[in-house]
Batch of 4 targets.
Target 1
Amino acid sequence: MSDEIRRLIDAARQAARHAHAPYSRFAVGAALLLDDGSIVTGANVENASYGLSLCAETVAVATASAQGRLKDIVAIGVIGGAMDEAGHATGTTPVSPCGRCRQVINEAAQMGHRDVLVHCGAATGDAVTSYRLSALLPDAFGPSDLGIG
């Protein structure tokens, strides 16, 4: 695993420690690599009204947007797993962004004119699968379809 990928996966694991997942008991952390080398993180936030829950990737992208950095995303690391008694993510199987998150990431990627790298990691261990966003969301709809960007 490259240093860059390890840095993202480690940051995503740290973010997952802050997941608010009392209903699914599945913690997810996401870490965005920005073009200047800085990292922005997010964790999933569940809500008793399930439809109002937020995925870790969406939280991270919204944080980057709040910082004026939406166009600067070059890669994302995401991990997730069932929570143990201490509330930490467990498991050795890599997880990937859901369809909604793929679309949210695509919005930023198209605005930045990038094919973002998506590194899908496990809560524990070294298993990581990497993709280009275009492989995870082929023929994506985004700002360019509306004549923006």
Target 2
Amino acid sequence: MVTRTERDHFQAMFKRLDVDGDGVIEQVDIDQLVHKVLRRVGAGEPGTETWRRVVGLGNRMWQELLDGTDANGDGRVSAREFVAAYRRPDFLDQVAVPFELAILEAVDADGDGSISLAEWLTWQQAKGVASNEALGEFQQIDADGDGHLTRDECVQHIKQTYTT
């Protein structure tokens, strides 16, 4: 059974993926989110290696959402179907984490292998997260307090985000 906190958490995640706000996730929602984030973080032009990688992983995420949970075969993912997908450990490890990490790598504007606060805020704002919420999240993730997020810190955060 899903707790109220889990339900609220998944609803917030669902709303971020339901870009057009129609109550279901469709491939167009994933595509719009990916393009919006990549443009916002300055990941170059469509067709570059970064774009192809992130778009490919976004397409994989969509296909896994659809294949693994679209019980009624309507080509759309409801909130209930979404929760079922994200609670599958294989989905997390094989789809969600690689997708999120690819976006994080695109966000790393200076290519130093870590995410600065400014890079983090740019990414979170592109996803529609309020600045104060994004700042608080950054501070929680930055385990060593050095002002940068490492790949390991990000992986831990992604897994916590989807499982707690």
Target 3
Amino acid sequence: MRFLKIGFLLALGLTASSARAAGLTSIQVPATADNPALSAFVWSPCAMPPKEVKLGPMTVAAVRNCPIAGSRLPLVVISHGHGGGSLNHHDIAETLADAGFLVVALNHPGDNFSNLNRSGDISIMFQRPRDVKRLIDFLVTDWPQAEKIDPDRIGFFGFSRGGYTGLVLAGAVPDFHDATVPCPEPAPICGEIRRNEIPAEPLSRDPRIKALALADPLSFFSTKESLKAIDVPIQLWSSEHGGDGVLPSNVGALAVNLPHKPDFHVVPGSAHFAFLAPCPPALANSQSEICTDQAGFDRVAFHRSLDATVLEFFRQTLGPASAN
């Protein structure tokens, strides 16, 4: 893959397509003996008028450390793609928070814009689901605002590797040796797979996650058998042209092989990076690979539709944000 420092630019240089009033704060999950610390952004319902908040070169309309409006709120966790960051899908987070959801987007250690030292290692495919589990553990038990969360209404949004992460958390079992699934990763992951250098640790589902929205998920799941344990609703998005190691045919196979029919959307004219929030002009000029779409494709208009459709899915599957 070719994300590398692109994720850093996205994390600091994206602009929202419209002013929103979501509360915004940052949190850190402490390191343990076996796991690194996790950093994340939290978006929340906020009753105060927005202000300008500067995040590196980006200025957003938000309220830092705004008191969280409401109680027993549904929670949605966001997992970024390879080399990305916690702001890559900020527009979805803002939309959900404005509608009464708590949203937490983490940086996966060793596979984010500021640290890629494990991004090429097969072990990251085992660590990523563990990151999300640790984050949820912290949010519902040790976070000072834990009482704001309804632990029975937790959802997940994942893009690319984040989509893979969500499928594992839902109960899917990857088959890294399946010859029908091309290895879309650079060395050393593909070499590790060929040499059977795959961690022996189990990958287990997290039953606390009740619904998943997945965009262009990286797939090592080619059979119904590998997906048979999934029993939660899924909204599945596929770009038309794919890219960066994700094949539209693999996403289509997921739609067919999932045990319960997903809410499946193929986005005409799109490529893989269309699921990232729209780029500001400066980033579009310097990183055309991830910011320039196919001729005739309007990423800003698409994200208005994407945000609204994801919001409606979580409203339907997790219940209205005002429920107790």
Target 4
Amino acid sequence: MKLVVVSAGLSTPSSTRLLADRLTEAVRESVPGGVEVRVVELRDLAVDVAHHLVTGFPPAALREALEAVVAADGLIAVTPVFSASYSGLFKSFFDLVEPGALAGKPVLLGATGGTARHSLVLDHAMRPLFSYLRAVVAPTAVYAASEDWGGEEGLGARVGRAGAELAGLMGEGAVRGASEPEMPEVVPFEEQLAALRVG
């Protein structure tokens, strides 16, 4: 199985990448037979993302990263929090994913920030974004504030639970690229009324 990890951390070293690595390891431990992992560092693709947004043509490295995300059996997406939301680079990257390409794809969400007050970004910004993309989001998302890195107990338990959930979703083989459900034929309202009168 293929697992792609998208990290939007901007610094080196990055707490965002550190969280992404911890989540990756938790998934690895929960998948029998292991997983093939590819990490996409958005920091390295920032200029390519900007060029693609302006020109509509992705440079080779960005195109390969987008193709890897679409082809993955599971996705881990981690961003730092800026102004109470995901980073602009994180959003710009996922804006470039073709509509419907993440439909049914299992996704594990993570975010990092300086204070626990920003933890709501997971449910108020990230979950809606991936719901719009029609991905299957793991129930447990992981937020790591600065103080969490010192108290391993709480963070470690959340990371382990989240990793096991994503591994379970990947094992279920969630349907990727599912088409829209076929809509039943619409009967005009006048015909429906006429049928009621006859009865």
